[in-house]
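Weekly structure sync, notes
Attendees: PL (lead), two postdocs, one rotation student
Agenda item 3: pending single-chain targets
PL asked that the sequence for the first pending target be pasted directly into the notes so everyone works from the same version. It is reproduced below exactly as submitted, 198 residues in total.
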Amino acid sequence: MPMTLTSLAINRRRFLGIGAAALAAPQLALAQSRKDYIVPEEYLPIVVRTRDQFAPGQIIVDPNTFSLYLTMERRRAARFIVGIGRGNLYEAGSFYIGAKKEWPSWTPTKEMIARSPKKYGKYAGGMPGGPNNPLGARALYLFTEKKGDTFLRIHGTPEPWTIASAVSNGCVRLVNEHIVALYDLVDVGTPVTFYAKS
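Predicted structure, written out during the meeting:
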């Protein structure tokens, strides 16, 4: 059963990276399909310091730097570079992980189908999990106490070149290898905060 969560009052300015380069938004990845794509070294997960101590085991997403942080003990956090929702599809707020799935199936929401019927209509009945599934190797399902499942996910992607950019329909995406690592570090009930875009 998920833990009871109260609103998390976390200010993104409380995070302190390991230098100016770590705090700056990474350059946008090339939005093209490439079988030989290699994740740039600056997009690999690293451990950074935080200015203040946070309870370990929280996920915090800063859309302004395309960063996801998993807080750790002793003022540290693991930072992952992510892709976020494009335009007004990114939704700031407080959530918790309500479910975790390996190689999840995917069904576009009614809103996605309405926005792009040619692209998503053919998947209205769902798509089984696998290497070409938009949710990638793992998915963390975000819930709130009021709504239950929000249909927002933190998930992998078969398109790693799209991380460090705002291209999704609202979810946060990681390189498949990185979501596998994150998936193994968090439990159902983990609190999640998406900062607002500035």
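Discussion points:
- The chain is about 10% helix and 30% strand.
- The helical segments are 20-23, 110-115, 117-120, 176-185.
Action: rotation student to compare against the earlier draft before next sync.
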